[in-house]
UniProtKB/TrEMBL annotation:
Transmembrane segments: none
PANTHER family: FINGER DOMAIN PROTEIN, PUTATIVE (AFU_ORTHOLOGUE AFUA_8G01940)-RELATED (PTHR38111:SF6), ZN(2)-C6 FUNGAL-TYPE DOMAIN-CONTAINING PROTEIN-RELATED (PTHR38111)
Chain spans, region Disordered: 55-79
Record keyword Transcription present: yes
Domain Zn(2)-C6 fungal-type: 9-37
Keywords noted in UniProt: DNA-binding, Nucleus, Transcription, Transcription regulation
Name this protein carries in UniProt: Zn(2)-C6 fungal-type domain-containing protein
Basic and acidic residues composition-biased segments: 55-71
Length: 463
């Protein structure tokens, strides 16, 4: 019998033919690359053993299993049965002799289901930004090495399971997704605790995927705020320049509207409204033009986001001023001028979007929106319609802030402390949840997509 080499390196380093530092339980080389270290166990073991009764499958049991596959039980769809096989990996002939066959089949099914998840929950966001991002989420899961890490795989299965459970109206499957969510959180905690992986793309991707699950199936009404605050801190640790291109840009575009929704709910200024963060979006647009991916509608979307990102700060400063407190050295007149300037920009963008939505179809830019053919006129109208929803809510907020500042100016001239009522007729009220107008039980599958395309303003819309 040929002996098995006793090299003490981990299997990943052996395969790559590099020197392993043999750190346990995971070597530093694997941690630095952001991949899961397979450990130091030998891949092959030899046993001097004859086959026993347990190594054979009863032919009658095999026939019964095949019959169940051909005639599934009532009330269970094919997709649910496929999910059950994906959730619980049972030993099979393929697993024993050619493990890669079963693994590849399962991997392919998982990636396919994830694309369904993305297109069902974020249809307009994905179709708007996917042609501009390299890689987008679907390509990342399908082809990127980082998608093979344990944390991403756990988050991926968590989302897939939730989607299939909801699609098949099976609460048991949805319950399994919550169990998987717990495992994903444990993996994420380990990545965040490790200085080498704390701000990596894999950590951020895992955090964003789990945050989306938390918003889709929350543990408590405010639990999504914990995720958003943590992701915001990780984003700021890397700095804005990290999100101008690549998969980092994909992660940023996915979560940024929810960062604004978080700021609106907390009534705090958002870091996304700072000049350096707004500049990143402008640089990304310029880079798209250079690469031949730029188009009129996405430029308008980026301009709207940059203006909406100032909204949480305007809300926080106005609230402070009308309550008779100091707003960090900002005077009422200066704040009024800044809000009026931002409102003017948004109204101009609103007119352009109204043209794209079909109200003025003769606009020259609409006829030549995308020379590459990535966006049809109907698609542009869909994007414009979604953005107009959020733009209207953002303009309503600025209008009400100006009314409050003017009223406070008159009252302060009379020598009285302002006691402005913050009722529904005054200003859109931030809620304790992100759901906004989607709190009903029959909310659509793409409700997060609508919040995303509204730049987070639907989270403060009062309905």
């Amino acid at each position: 019998m040929v002996g098995v080499p006793r090299n003490p390196s981990c299997r990943e380093c052996l395969q790559r033919r590099v020197k392993c530092d043999r750190t346990r339980p995971e070597c530093h080389r694997c941690q630095a690359r952001g991949v899961r270290c397979p450990g130091y166990r030998r891949a092959l073991k030899f046993y001097n053993q004859t086959t026993g009764h347990g190594d054979f499958t009863d032919a009658r049991e095999f026939d019964r299993q095949q019959d169940e596959k051909r005639n599934p039980r009532p009330g269970r769809s094919r997709s649910t049965d496929a999910l059950a096989l994906a959730l619980i990996r049972r030993p099979s002939f393929d697993d024993s002799l050619v493990p890669s066959l079963a693994g590849r089949a399962l991997d392919s099914q998982t990636k396919e289901v994830f694309e369904y998840v993305v297109r069902a929950t974020f249809p307009v966001t994905f179709s708007t930004f996917a042609p501009r991002l390299e890689p987008n989420w679907v390509d990342f899961i399908r082809y990127h090495q980082g998608a093979r890490t344990e944390s991403v795989e756990r988050a991926l299965r968590c989302l897939n399971t939730w989607y299939l459970g909801v699609k098949n109206k099976d609460p048991e499957i949805v319950g399994k997704s919550r169990y998987m969510y717990g495992g994903g959180l444990r993996c994420l905690a380990g990545l965040v605790a490790n200085p080498n992986t704390r701000t990596s793309d894999i950590t951020l991707a895992t955090a964003v995927m789990l945050a989306v699950f938390e918003m889709l199936d929350p543990v408590t009404p405010q639990s999504w705020l914990v995720h958003s605050r943590g992701i915001g801190q990780l984003l700021q640790e890397r700095g804005p320049r990290a999100y101008s291109s690549g998969f980092s840009r994909t992660i940023f575009v996915t979560i940024r509207s929810f960062m604004l929704a978080d700021a609106f709910v907390r009534e705090e200024a958002s870091f996304l409204g700072q000049p350096e963060w707004r500049a990143v979006n402008q640089e990304a647009t310029i880079l798209d033009d250079r690469n031949g991916k730029g188009n009129w509608i996405t430029k308008v979307v980026e301009e709207i986001f940059n203006e909406i990102s100032l909204g949480p700060g305007f809300l926080a400063q106005t609230t402070t001023l009308v309550k008779g407190r100091s707003a960090g050295g900002v005077s009422r007149e200066d704040l009024t001028c800044r809000i009026q300037h931002s409102r003017g920009i948004l109204r101009n963008l609103q007119r352009q979007l109204a043209s794209a939505a079909g109200l003025k179809t003769q606009l020259k830019e609409i006829k030549d929106i995308d020379k590459s053919g990535s966006y049809s006129l109907e698609h542009v109208r869909t994007i414009a319609g979604r953005c107009l929803q959020g733009l209207g809510a953002g303009l309503a907020l600025l209008d009400q802030l100006l009314v409050l500042l003017e009223a406070d100016k008159k009252r302060s001239g009379e020598g009285r402390v302002s006691e402005i009522s913050w009722g529904d007729d005054r200003i859109p009220q931030p809620a304790a949840t992100i759901e906004g107008p989607f709190s009903a039980a029959d909310r659509p599958m793409d409700w997060l997509d609508q919040i995303s395309m509204s730049m987070g303003t639907l989270a403060i819309s009062n309905t």
